User: Fold these one by one.
Assistant:
Number 1:
Amino acid sequence: MVAAQALAALLAIASPLLVRAQVVPSEPSPGTVSNAGSTCRVTWQADPASKTDWKTMAIQLMSGDNLEMAHITTITSNQDGTKDGAFEYKCPEVTPNSAIYFYQFSSPAVPDHTWTTRFTIASDSGATTPPANAVQPDGDKVPWGVGNLVDASTAVAPPPWVTTDGGSSTSSNSTSSAKPSSTSSLASSTSSKMVPVSSAKALVNSTGTSSATDSSTTNAALNLSPKLWFGAVGAFAFAALL
């Protein structure tokens, strides 16, 4: 009886962690080049774990490195991330025209953000320049740079659930931060790596728009893989039976 109760308790603790999921961006993909003035397309796969968490989803155009992300503009703020979807809009004129741009997805009900890979916004004629930086501040060889809208007056501020406090900003529902785990990947214009779904501070860019810091309520336990969780549950259950 005691063993059964112990196993039930462990499964109750582990189950929410095993089903924890996120919206998964699909487009733009590595190597995508979109000319200013053409149609920019963003697609995503729904969060399979919840029908409410991503019901209201915002998408921001971003630049910067993997830890100091700079908000450029919010392209949409009322998408339904509980369903597979797509959003199209007119690609803005930006400077520089380089492979340094990516999208950030967020929801007022979820402390974690998620990101696309880096892609290129070229000039209306297709002209581009190399990223200003070849290496991330942490040494990772992922090119990056800081971009802005040519017309800063058209910039849309970050979604309202992102609040600014003393020069840095956090998701309004965040309570703590989690460091990127060793299994997280980083956004890149040359590979399928993505920016880590983890702690990442965003900066105010030269357009003067406000910014967002990604925070997470996850802790070290949430970074464990399902296999490790099942192993831990099994070990405790076996011990309880002895």
Number 2:
Amino acid sequence: MDRSKVISHGLRWTASWSLRTIVILAALWGVLQVLTFFWSALLPVALALVVSTVLWPLARWLRSKGFPPALAAVASMVGVFLVIGGLIAAIAPSVSSQWSNLTDKAISGVDQVQTWLQGPPFHVSHHQINSFGQTITDKIQQSGNQIASGVFSGVSVAGHVLIDLIVTLVLTFFFIKDGPRFLPWLRLITGRHAGAHLTEALSRAYATLGGFIRTQAIVSAVDSTCIFIGLVVLGVPLAAPLAIITFFGGFIPIVGAFVAGVLAVLVALVTKSVTTAIIVLIIIVLVQQLEGHILSPLLQSRSMSLHPALVLLSIALGGDEFGIMGAFFAVPVVAIVAVLLRYLGEQIDLRTGDLQLVEVESMTPEGQYAAASSVRRGLEMRAHDRSD
């Protein structure tokens, strides 16, 4: 073959795939812009999917015991609320019994700080401290309009959060109640062949989402246990309530761990000493570093078959683009995309003959049908190529 023809063929191939890559990247950018525009509307849907993933095993068990779908959905949701309410009721007496002592020590701690500032090496006078406090008070009074505006803004944000919460609960109820009807409806709309592929792919994606929630619960449990042990050893009061707050805060990226850590340090500072508070801070930082750089990436990568570096990168990109919720949903979204890509690669391997039907582990009967269809389609394509 002439050298120019080989080069021409290579250039055409490169140009063709470059154009396809540009089109795919443009489509992905468009999808990202649409998600950004409708993020406030899509957030309750995403949260409802996560909550329904957690509650579905309980609802499925209730259905197997004869509960109607609606009653099973309500019972599972109420059951979780009762568990959370029980935890709050369990820690409330401890908080109540130690609250007055905590308040007294907080006042004493403020007095100690003033005494410390008045001594060496600072030698701040009592008049200077009072003057500083009066300056802060004057600044607050002068900023009254801004504070009022901030309060109204906060009320508006709280209203949006309340609406999102209500929508999330309603969607969760319908997802749990009517979830099993979705895939049959999808097969009816898309047809048997496409529906079989969608059923298998979405079933794998849903299982991956469940794995993410379970893994996040394990990570939060490890964090809260380590911090609880540290607080107990140091003799910090309210160790159990702080550990529970840490556990639930672990499901809220960045802010949850930060708030729980600040509370623990403040309690240690008020009830013990500055040294104890510093030790608590060191423990919390070490635990969070262990979680963020080792435990969470390792467990998430194993449960969702993702590389730890990809987990860290997805969290960084999701948080940068969509904030706190973006950081929370980044890992499951990337994992679901990876599941879909692996499923696509599996179907390609079945058609090329690189993968045998007996090697495929399908989650649904429809997945077995889809795999068999891909094998048949591959045989037809190879027979057609040989005839040509």
Number 3:
Amino acid sequence: MGEVKNAEEFERILDSLAEGIGHDERVLANKVGAEAFKKIMQPKVPVSTKTFTGKTVHLRDSLVTEQHPNGSVAVGFTAKGHKGYIGRFQNDGWDVRDRNGIQHSHVPGKHFWEESVKEAKPILATVMTNAIKQAMDKKVR
């Protein structure tokens, strides 16, 4: 059996790898994934031809990422301007009703969220795997 040179360094590397992926690495990988998803989704979000003035922004411009304490990162629309509410109608569609509550027609949804998820799955897997791999490589060095 051979002798391990620099045994202390080797032990440190093994200890850091045994810890696995920590909270910071998980947050970093999720942030990278969320930003990649946001880039894929942004062009798919319908944009109004109406010119907004003041603080009102387009639905496409209100797409944000939010980090949670458990390490997850969510992508959604800002709550400030009720854009999530509008985004859901645009995505899922809605039934048109008059002032008496009588249903007249159905406006079909654009399903931009589902299309974005479908397109992003393989890309996110690659991007997040690379981020985790880089974090693990830093632990080894």
Number 4:
Amino acid sequence: MEEGWKEVYMTAHEYKAEMAREILENNGIKAIVMNQQDTAYKSFGEYLVYVADADYTRSVKLLKNLKN
């Protein structure tokens, strides 16, 4: 990922990554989902959600309940 962005959430499930992105964007935080799954073996890899460095702390707080 480019400089200035931090990984705030990681999951093996696309729907959870999209839920995280939606929560963040509904709170005014731009978020990007990156698909790191292997194209040949869908059970390998994760979906990563990134936010700007400046939004990281707030993002962690917003997603705290989603991680449980």
